[in-house]
Amino acid sequence: MLRVTDYIKKSLEPDSQSGKSHKGRLLIWNITNDCNLSCEHCYSSSGKSEIAQKLTPELVLSTVKSLKKADVKAVILSGGEPLMSPFLFDIAVILKDNGFQVHLSTNGTMINENNIGRIKSLFNYVGISIDGTEKTHDRFRQREGAYEASLKALRLLKNKSVNVGLRTSLTAYNYKDIAFIFEMAKKEDVKKLYISHLVYSGRGSITSEIDKTVRKKISSYVIETAFNFVKDGILVDIVTGNNEPDAILLLEMFKSRCPEFYDNMREKILEWGGNQSGKRIINIDYSGFVKPDPFFNYKAGNIKDRDFFEIISEDKLFSKLREMPRKLKGRCEKCNYLEVCNGGSRARAYAVYGDYFQEDPACFM
Ligand code: SF4
User: Fold this and answer.
1) What is the sign of the dihedral through the CA atoms of 34, 38, 44 and 49?
2) Cα 204 to ligand 1 centre (Å)
């Protein structure tokens, strides 16, 4: 993920402490595949399930030591809908008590006065998914009233002073609502707006992809808006995900606006290192399988059978993903931008070419 606002601010004020990125690894933990919604673009194909799988607190507790050994510093609890798991709060307690930053990624519809106290006490940050206007969102989420419920949760969290942000997944069906989403982030005064690009996984099929030329314009708009927010003192941090070539656009746009600070920006972007799946980002799915990120089909091993640190250290695909620069094929192989983006999404390459080391088919550069 690319912290666009952070990098703009830090590059303009090199001594600023603003938005220091997490050191260490980030674990995305899908604790259940159960969900009260059935979204069109869900990467884990989650939905209401009689045979829903859930990770137990015992399994989480037995993995904590190994997570620390692997230098995991922050854990995002996701799903399915994590609030569908009866173990969510027990898992969050274990992680918090063991010193991890704990984040919640939710559709928000199950947040209410009864659980807001526990959410406030356990989570460092809550991300609520909203995909556009009420009409767009309810159609995507296949539930009338979902938008209202998510917005209500967002406001409840704000009122209780919980760090809360918006998450939006861009597809061909909602990208025209992007200006609406920015307005909403500003109006609701959220801490962060995370714009996620489509990775072809689960129900998030390539048929929902946006034309590359249009996507480049959208990315430019997102970065432009981040510059404007910084200039106008609007405190919404803009972050993009699953589209590391955004960093190339950020560098180009920064150079034309603030050439005197360009070297600062370039240094920070190179330090960030582009796509980090399998390196600083790791996923455990609802069955306990360890994957480089949630969009990979590949399973390196299961924490029910093997030690987490051992799995990521010994797995051959993880080792290849950690190489810098990655040994990629197609357009990525000789691309001058490789050191910036690290080749973009490997899961997208696999979805299209059946090869994790082919070029990112969605790259607009
Ligand atoms: S072609 Fe590959 S290496 Fe080049 S910018 Fe695109 S994703 Fe990055």
Assistant:
1) positive
2) 22
CATH class of this structure's domain 2-323: alpha beta
Please tell me the distance between residue 252's alpha carbon and the centre of ligand 1 in angstroms. 15
Range 25-40 average pLDDT: 84
Mean pLDDT of 264-290: 96
The CB of 341 under 6 Å from ligand 1? The reply is: yes
Give the Å distance between the CA of 228 and the centre of ligand 1: 27
Please determine, for residue 20, whether its predicted confidence score (pLDDT) is greater than 60.
Answer: no
pLDDT for 38 = 67
- Ligand 1 closest atom vs CA 331: 1
What pLDDT shows up at residue 152?
Answer: 97
Q: Where are the alpha helices (DSSP H) in the chain?
A: 4-12, 57-69, 88-97, 116-122, 134-141, 146-159, 178-187, 212-232, 246-257, 262-272, 308-314, 316-322, 330-333, 338-341, 346-353
Domain locations along the chain: 2-323
Query: Can you give the pLDDT at residue 19?
Result: 45
Ligand 1 mean position, distance from CA 12 (Å): 26
- Nearest-CA residue for atom 8 of ligand 1: 343
Q: Tell me the pLDDT band of 39, cut-offs 50, 70 and 90.
A: low
